[in-house]
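Morning!

As promised:
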Amino acid sequence: MPDIAAVKAALSGQRIETPSWGYGNSGTRFKVFAQSGVPRTPFEKLDDAAQVHAFTGVAPKVSLHIPWDRVEDYAALAAYAKDRGLELGAINSNTFQDDSYKLGSVCHPDAKVRRKAVDHLLECVDIMDATGSSDLKLWFADGTNYPGQDDIVDRQDRLAEALAEVYARLGDDQRLLLEYKFFEPAFYTTDVPDWGTSYAHCLKLGSKAQVVVDTGHHAPGTNIEFIVAFLLREGKLGGFDFNSRFYADDDLMVGSADPFQLFRIMHEVAKNGGLAPETNVAFMLDQCHNIEAKIPAVIRSVMNVQEATAKALLVDVDALAEAQQSGDVLAANAVLMDAYNTDVRPLLREIREETGLAPDPVAAYAGSGWQERITAERVGGEQAGWGA
Amino acid sequence: MPDIAAVKAALSGQRIETPSWGYGNSGTRFKVFAQSGVPRTPFEKLDDAAQVHAFTGVAPKVSLHIPWDRVEDYAALAAYAKDRGLELGAINSNTFQDDSYKLGSVCHPDAKVRRKAVDHLLECVDIMDATGSSDLKLWFADGTNYPGQDDIVDRQDRLAEALAEVYARLGDDQRLLLEYKFFEPAFYTTDVPDWGTSYAHCLKLGSKAQVVVDTGHHAPGTNIEFIVAFLLREGKLGGFDFNSRFYADDDLMVGSADPFQLFRIMHEVAKNGGLAPETNVAFMLDQCHNIEAKIPAVIRSVMNVQEATAKALLVDVDALAEAQQSGDVLAANAVLMDAYNTDVRPLLREIREETGLAPDPVAAYAGSGWQERITAERVGGEQAGWGA
Amino acid sequence: MPDIAAVKAALSGQRIETPSWGYGNSGTRFKVFAQSGVPRTPFEKLDDAAQVHAFTGVAPKVSLHIPWDRVEDYAALAAYAKDRGLELGAINSNTFQDDSYKLGSVCHPDAKVRRKAVDHLLECVDIMDATGSSDLKLWFADGTNYPGQDDIVDRQDRLAEALAEVYARLGDDQRLLLEYKFFEPAFYTTDVPDWGTSYAHCLKLGSKAQVVVDTGHHAPGTNIEFIVAFLLREGKLGGFDFNSRFYADDDLMVGSADPFQLFRIMHEVAKNGGLAPETNVAFMLDQCHNIEAKIPAVIRSVMNVQEATAKALLVDVDALAEAQQSGDVLAANAVLMDAYNTDVRPLLREIREETGLAPDPVAAYAGSGWQERITAERVGGEQAGWGA
Amino acid sequence: MPDIAAVKAALSGQRIETPSWGYGNSGTRFKVFAQSGVPRTPFEKLDDAAQVHAFTGVAPKVSLHIPWDRVEDYAALAAYAKDRGLELGAINSNTFQDDSYKLGSVCHPDAKVRRKAVDHLLECVDIMDATGSSDLKLWFADGTNYPGQDDIVDRQDRLAEALAEVYARLGDDQRLLLEYKFFEPAFYTTDVPDWGTSYAHCLKLGSKAQVVVDTGHHAPGTNIEFIVAFLLREGKLGGFDFNSRFYADDDLMVGSADPFQLFRIMHEVAKNGGLAPETNVAFMLDQCHNIEAKIPAVIRSVMNVQEATAKALLVDVDALAEAQQSGDVLAANAVLMDAYNTDVRPLLREIREETGLAPDPVAAYAGSGWQERITAERVGGEQAGWGA
């Protein structure tokens, strides 16, 4: 049976990184519904992220997205974060919103566009140097919409060349996390459409290149925990972009669409050493809060990851291994389900109280007055968003 | 064997309606890439649509979208269309871009929002009266993103109530076309997610309510031609929103992703009387041209529908029926494939030449100087787009 | 807040019907792995079903499948059931295993084959008269594998004609439950592929025709609870064929692939009156136990339905309605998740103990010696299976 | 523009391998419909395959499946093939039909079962030595049905160990082709579910291990031609298992469900050197003919591959490259579509006539009397099938 003290320690030690863009406005191609109190600057985003950390205790890191979080002085931004108990996490590049990227960025047929894109990626590493971030997270929107539009193999060649240049620029303690995505915004081919493509490129790049699993970026029915387990076995799981989906890349709150899947993923993570700090798996959120209140949604998402992790840690791995080895299908499944069916909210409340936090972060935030304050204060200026 | 004269007559008589918004800018949630020469007003959109009709000869109708095509004087807009050999087609409502529609429109929990939405729909019927349009096309973005967010049944009740009010307002020669969509922009429930829901509501409304099939609005793997055949059998197929997709609602050019599927759809249409004018099936395009040139893309799409229709008309229905009746699976399939594998482009070129058109509409448009002209002239102002 | 006494009463009163074929051998097209102790006769299947009922207390009904459960004397079979505290439930027809059904049954192009199929359906009603069963459950494997193979509309006509004849034969207290299925064994068209098709036919037949929702018979991503809610609103939900799936019609134990989905379904059932006996929704299992022990798998499945139902009954519907009405997305979702995250196993153990049952049915069955007994006794003869 | 003489030469030189099991009975889990005239022995399967080759001229190779094609003397079988103008192709292993494989074969938790499975694979290499086959095609049905049933990573370890042992046994001119499959018969995890997993294992094994792409083994919406292009770029495409599907692994005739996809695949093959003999890509069929006549279905399938190949060879690659390089989306797509829309049947008829074949293989076979002969002669005995 799991040792509750160890479970508690693991849960207290877990770190969940929140994305700066989760605090800004977002939407679909049909409409972005603005919300009141939304940050206007990267500094205000950090203010909001600090609230999430204040009430959950496990979310000190904040991912940035360049150029959405472009500032004059990144060291100052990092200091601002530090003053609020935060640190700056992964730097996310953006090679999909410049007008020149209509047909791609690092895979574009025109070398000048590729140069521009690679320069942006190199700039992101510069920013990492300034912020102390260790992770460069690369998601490429590159792809094509129509059969014949461009050459699949040529685009792979261009991709490999760009990645090699960026990889060479990384410092000793920096790594490159390569994300894959099934489709969108490209609708025929995507240049990094699946984990296999990302893995193959990372393998060639070297040990500082790893795969990022965005839980919303797969074909229907894909068994994500298999991929997670496989990548952990290969030492190639760099981290997660957590969110959830019913259909495509819906970017809903992690754990809201299929909490059992999230548990199964965290079970593979826990079982295969992915919670150990030395494995260096980044647990990041990457979500949109199109219609729900943003800060509470991030808090809730952090809690959902915690609950899935708690259940994963409660799996009786000895009993599981025994049932598996004996070929007792129902018994093995039952061991897993016993953990999943456990209500871990009391345990998490207990942990929070032991560390001086309110047991219910959502209620505590609601009672804190922060939302009222930002609604009143953040008037005028331009609300942060995707800048699309 | 099909009678070629009859095939030619059917192809010459086919009418394909193009959407005003297909001439404007569009994109994904990540980026809208603006194009040069894009119309700034509904009048300029009609100018572009007139080009499509001039070179294809089968696209005299143009769908409008309110409020994207809002003008002071709709009769004047209709006259402007008429002067260019066009007529105004379906009026498309928009109940998804007002800030009050964040949680829905006609299904919103708040009666005031529902009132606003219904009033907009009634306004669309007013516009139909002014333009002479016979079709009110309703697509509702309504739905929810999270389990529990709202009550599924209550929302159906509200939907039924709104539809009934709008239906009652229709004139004798007007009809209501109810579109369904699998998902997006709502990510958990959609209030009209499938043909069954649309059909059930149309059935209760009466004979002036019919279902619209958007070819991009289905679950993966859905057999669309089955739905088309079923609705034709029930007299409930009002029309098509044509486009194509590899993944979700990609809104690519019709026929570009799965031309065989488009042929199968047109085969059911042709076989079940759907090409007869009295069946009143509207063949409308509803697409985005995010990265390709817009007017040529619309021309190409019209041609793709023509080619699929031509192949469908070439099916030897007697041989097909005989093979089907005798249970000869391969022979029956072969009859269908023979028509599909025929290159119908020469036939269509011949028809065009017989009616005084250039045989290759794409080349003819390219040589017409129109694109250069609008690129030069349409400078300044605000380019049309989705207004999201 | 839910009234616990009422919750307990509802749970005690719930009835879950188990399928006779769940106790026999099953498999995939690749292999059927036989298990020891499997019943050889319908009587032995009832013996096993009686075990499930003995340990769960909520599974007194057993569905039959004709011809797999063909016996000389159905009244005797019913009496045998009654002696064991059971009753015979839905009669399931089989129009897919006769050699003449290669191209369909009630939709076959050949009238003689259709006659044979309809006669079988009428025979099933005769059996219902003998067994006292009230439900005729119809699933048609009919469809085509290749485009052009047969005429979609003609097949609908044949289907309608067959259904009308069977419907006319029903007694006053009998009903026809029409199942739909996305695909398999037909791979191009299926003649009843979705709820819309089933609903449209049932509507024309009359009030004794209702739709059956098999939870494994949908396109990827389909929102099943929407369909459930819609059908309940229309009075057209006849019942469920419960099972679960990750990919296609996997026929795994209900609740094992997506327990949250099962909860959402039961939430719609509970909220919309579907648990009330007068609504007459049949909660049936329809599963395969290809690799796991069969009786324990059925017990586990019954428990999974109970757990989902318990959670659904614990939803604070007043708080939910209030949050929904106020448009508080996160609060509404939280009310639902609170119920889902509750560990209801203690409550169900309590209910069992109050009704004289062992708190843990799986353990109680394992300790009962039944499995050892049937393994020893059921030697020789031909094990029951699908007879494919 | 493509050189027609070169196109003809390429088409004449193409070799399409047919599967022995395509001539036997097959079906779904619901029913296997037996056909008349079906072979009873591997020798009779070769007789049928010889007919396919006689009328198409491009299908001299026949894949075997062990144990379905087990004979006493494999050299005699090879000689029998040679006498009929055939040669024996890939040897397909079967580790899914022994009773001991219920929970897997090379990934089974029990080392004894794994030993048995590996021994079977080694036996297959022995058979290759006897038949002169160069390809060992491995498809593993291994996987699990329920979360927790077995350990994902442990199973990968066992898989890697088994593959290494088999790889070490290969002769200099032999290779191991590792197939992947999304799901079925396992319904939760599959041990080689996607190309990435197969690729990763092949990479570790060495240059004699390559990936096989079965066109029916992907998640919905997967872009197969991307995978093909990627593997060709990496030198890791060993071959194809051709068939087609609308839903899951439907195993319909190749090219019957989505002929445009087949063309796109062959375009990537042709463009990236995959038709060159030295690339050694095996073009194999792997299909079921559940309801259609088997030999004509195989002929038709061979022709479908030829037609897709012909269209691919007709792509004007220079014009395509120019349009791609200039970023003209519509022009590039049009170049591809021009080739696809060409009716290549006259060209293929011409090639056949030039090589002394009848222009229409289906009609020629129908008129040959073979079907009547085997129907009359192959009476009694046990028809070949999957042996499930």
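Chain A touches chain C through 27 residues (CB under 8 Å).

Hope this helps with the figure draft.
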